[in-house]
Records
---
Amino acid sequence: MSQEHASAQPEDQPVVRYAVEGAVATVTLDSPANRNALSRRLVAGFLDGLDRAAADPDVRVVVVAATGRVFCSGADLSEAASGSMEEGARTIVELQRRILAHPTPVVVRAQGPVRAGGTGIVAAADVAVCAREATFALTEVKLGLAPAAISLTVLPRMTSRSAALAALGGEVFDAEAAEASGLVTRVVAAEELDAAVAEVCASFASGSAQGLRETKRLLNRTLLADVEARGDDLAALSASLFGSEEAKAAMTAFLSRGRKQRG
């Protein structure tokens, strides 16, 4: 869970937007100032959007989108470096659980880079459509961490060989590699992204609420059971790694390099 973060969004501006058009609810991560990092505010807004969609009987599909160049850069390292990550790790597990258990299909629209914890959002979604320019990386290993909380969804989606290469190396891989690994469903040109997402949404929206709910429940039964059985333990592991001296030193150095580069 890592990526360089700029200054956070002003407190008086929402970091997540929610909109409904027809049968499609869109939850938009709108914190480009810190590359849509999974801050406490953003995760809280994300969960609220999912809850609002679940409570709306007219919604048949949820799209998760983002503003700015980056889809999601992972955990907010400024928060992680300044205190305990126990609550943060638990909320990231809960976010994945809520996506998996949502009564409607969840479709990710990834227009740009996805890093670390953001990969858990992509993996938890039922369908992930991304632009060819999108890149991915499980960067935790570079900071003395492990992709513990997101392993619940990321590892089942990816082939074991692809997951080992990505998690142990922490290197960037492109959209085509993400598709081949099973992490994403479809890769399209940037100018075709909206049309591709709309096509998936139209297909899902033609289903009945009961049919969608029960079919999704069948598809995600094993994943959801694993999240519920092991989520607490993996959140605790994630928090302990974030709290280690090795990780704290690595995160501090990483954030310092980012400030120097911006200066």
---
Amino acid sequence: MTHREYQVAEGLAPYTELIHGKVVELNAPSRLHGLVCAEIAFLLTAHSKKHDCGAVFTNDSGILVQRSPDTVRGMDVGYCSYQRVAKGQLPEGYGGPAPEVVFEVLSKTDRWPAVLAKVADYLQADVLVVCVVDPGQRTARMFRPDGTDITLSENDTLEIPEIQPTLEAKVSDIFSS
């Protein structure tokens, strides 16, 4: 039985995104993907709670990145400051201000053209930094609207001044082992 057949048999909705008005099925993430997302969310949440500066989103929370035709992307982990959305006032649904920071964690089935298209969608939607994490290479590649594109190794420090106060963490911290 294929994964899709299992989902249908169990009544489970497949993992999807809305891309240019079309529903696109995506592969379900692996456990390693989930572990890395959890570590990123932990770092962001600890920082956010310590400084009472914003909210953290996980589980492929949807973000509307384009209208007519609509595109809704599922971010692995996102951060939205209380300057963009007042504390306790998070909008329901996919609308509202874009988060300042989005993390995408690569899976073995991801291909760079599709990943870069997703990065471009986020940046066009007013995300200030998109960090693509590659568990296989143990790297973090950061993209900003000005065209900046830097790759950090696990020995480097991830600095995100878009989160105030600036979030700083070793890239290796997001891989947990």
---
Amino acid sequence: MTESLIPVAPALDEPLEILSACHGRVRANLQTLDRLIRWLPDHGADKDAQQAAVNVMRYFNLGAMNHHQDEEEDLFPVLLERCPANVRVRIRRLVAWIKDDHRALEATWAQLREQLAMIASGESDQLDADVVANFSAQYLNHLDREDNELFPLAANILTDADIRQMSDRMRERRTGSNK
């Protein structure tokens, strides 16, 4: 089973670019899930399938969770504080929708993670195509809203100081250090 190339992340001093690049990694991992569904019937939970399951779990257990934290703890509060009055209601609704969608994605991921853990350990070669399709559709819709609504708004509203503060927080979250 051939893995696709996962996009390289920008430097931690470019927080909006990091958030956007994360979407590329989500898409790559969704593609891996799609390939895994097609792989398992013919090959079972062989070493390639096990490694693919491990890689997808690693990303969604850590990378995706960091991404949600970056948005909810670092981006949203500043965005809501700085947003002009003429877009305040729109941004509040968008942020509320994204937070709710994060919880829905996390719930669907919990179902999928159990199946992938069994594949990763070689105990099962079963992956529910409907759960994968639902997770992928949910995530792609989520990414679309963030790419086309959230990130452009943030790029126009955040100050250089906001960007530096987000960068510091994201670096701390990922490395345990502030510089």
---
Amino acid sequence: MRLRNKPWAKPLIAANPDLIVTDPAALKGIWQSRFSRSAPLYLEIGMGKGNFIIEMAKQHPENNYLGMEVQTTVAAVVLKKLLAQSASLPNLQLIVGDGRLLTEFFAENEITGIYLNFSDPWPKKKQAKRRLTYHTFLQQYRQVLVKNGQIEFKTDNQGLFEFSLQSMNNFGMYFVGVWLNLHQSEENENNVLTEYEAKFSQKGQPIYKVTARFNCSTEH
């Protein structure tokens, strides 16, 4: 999602350094220090308005969560929503950062799982390198994830979904599950909606999902 710059965004972020990180590289290898206790660490890349990552943190207090967004204004919108919660979420931290620099922000085996929800499809062929399931991104995910750590990817875009399946397969990944109509499957029972997901599903569009992990014995 893209928002116009808001004059209140940067001051709000600056006033809440305990909830949002603007220099993620400084925390490489020590992310657990941002939380009240160490726990499996899950990262959403491109958190939109934050509904998904906030709800995950609420439902799973046994885990720690990071929501990352490259756009300062978007991150500030999520921060405002987090501050408005009736109860604090000590297991959630926000990050202003670029997903292309993941290995600069996280040490090897530091992340337990990665969520990619309704990423920009970058539909033109020449834009393929920008897609978050392009092989250069997958290489970074494999480096920062724990052994057998998983990626969960959801989209309404069939073209991006097919590209992602092919990209993951070519990278030697193992498919834990593939759903061509998530909301009409048993997998939907514990599914946490994103803003876009709610919007598209109301229109009757199928939601695609794949859960995959890396085959650690395969070298690239």
